[in-house]
Amino acid sequence: MSGIILLCRAGFESDCAAEIQDKATELGIYGYCQTQPDQAYVTYHCQAEEADHIARKLALKELVFAREMFVLLSAIKLAGVEDRASAVLEALLPHQESFALAGDLRVETPDTNEANQLSKFCRKFSVPLRQTLRKAELLSNKPLAKRPLLHVMFVNSAHALTGYSYSYNQTPHVGGILRLKMPKDGPSRSTLKLDEAFQVFVPEHERDKRIQAGMKAVDLGAAPGGWTYQLVRRDMMVQAVDNGPMADSLMETGQVQHIKEDGFKFRPKRKNINWLVCDMVEKPARVGELMTSWLLEGDCQEAIFNLKLPMRQRYAAVKEYLAQITEQLQTHGTKPFEIQAKHLYHDREEITVHLRWLPKS
């Protein structure tokens, strides 16, 4: 058994499968996908050396629908097994050459209701499993950030998958899920989308420079203020554009100027906007065109926005949306740019996109 395991939101398995099939083909690898509805992960079957090549060369951040990715080594049947740690060790030993000495261990589950009931067990089980793997010299005595990460994923209590990922191409979050608490004074749950987007798209070592107090921001389609809340929380000065009412708590901060205008028609009077954000329920192509024009006309430096997904063939649609944006920036722009897109944990039937002009090196 060999291949790649990709974790995703339940219900989006076919989109995740279409994406890995497409990306693997670009690498000259021709495997096949296996999945079931609502199981929240996809298995891409290919040769062991091909799976390792994907894990090295296909950047996780370039995948829209995959939250986490690791090379599949083995499947373990655990029904009636009392010593699970020894069973995992036995399954990993024949594959030790694949990862040599692992720097850390992650015991996890797919994001399904059934599997999530095992999360407490996973946390407890990781303790004896670490000890067992260290004694067998499969796992370092202390975490080593530059060594491969071992994965043990419990699909259910009787079935687990093992594998590894590389330190430079993995998510720091178990299952690829960044769990955030809803702020008590947040105007709407949509606020968590922008909070997650800032943390996913802006590397930690760049946040102090790119997300600063006093920066100027525009929120298109702002009411009641879920996304504006995150900008205010980061001490930015915000122009909130929406004909609808804004939360009083935000207006009382003195950081928000409420502009009652159509988000598709508004443009700032001065070209000093650091961040543009937008969560409007509109046709994705129209939103993408609007965001692109803001960058091309110098009305903002960076943009984060949502694109609503169709009911079917979502990956094909996303690929088309991103291609249109990329083509416009390449054709009419004069600077290098960065485009990122992710189906975030707090997204539902949409993806979140980040655009920015890259600074001069």
From TrEMBL:
Q: Which domain of life is it from?
A: Bacteria
Its BP terms in the Gene Ontology are: methylation; rRNA processing
Residue stretches making up the RlmM ferredoxin-like domain: 1-70
Active-site residue list:
K308 (proton acceptor)
Q: Where is the Ribosomal RNA large subunit methyltransferase M THUMP-like domain?
A: 83-166
Swiss-Prot/TrEMBL catalytic activity: cytidine(2498) in 23S rRNA + S-adenosyl-L-methionine = 2'-O-methylcytidine(2498) in 23S rRNA + S-adenosyl-L-homocysteine + H(+)
Keywords of the record: Cytoplasm, Methyltransferase, rRNA processing, S-adenosyl-L-methionine, Transferase
Q: Example GO molecular function term?
A: S-adenosylmethionine-dependent methyltransferase activity
Name the enzyme's class: transferase
**What's the family?**
Belongs to the class I-like SAM-binding methyltransferase superfamily. RNA methyltransferase RlmE family. RlmM subfamily.
NCBIfam families with a match to the protein in the record: PRK11760.1
Q: What is this protein called?
A: Ribosomal RNA large subunit methyltransferase M
Gene encoding this polypeptide? rlmM
